[in-house]
Design brief:
The protein is an all-alpha fold. The protein contains two helices and no strands. The termini are far apart.
Length: 75
């Protein structure tokens, strides 16, 4: 059981790093692949794109709410 929990913590950490660094390239790059380079549509990449787009929207909402509460100042 301890090994499973350790595996899940590693998987969770890898997921955080993956989506932290790759959400913008996925959201901007996938339409380029589809519309300009002629790649065939893939349902799994479409789901990944929607998830990354949702994460970007969440980041903007959190940033706006922190700004409204006075926790962060835009400079």
């Amino acid at each position: 059981m301890r090994e499973f929990k350790a595996f899940m913590r590693h998987l969770y950490g890898a997921g955080i790093l993956f989506f932290y660094y790759l959400k913008w390239p996925i959201v901007l790059g996938l339409p380029v692949l589809y519309f300009y380079l002629g790649y065939k549509r893939n349902i799994w990449l479409d789901i990944l794109w929607i998830y990354c787009f949702g994460l970007i929207i969440k980041d903007f909402v959190v940033m706006f709410l922190r700004y409204k509460r006075g926790e962060k100042v835009w400079r």
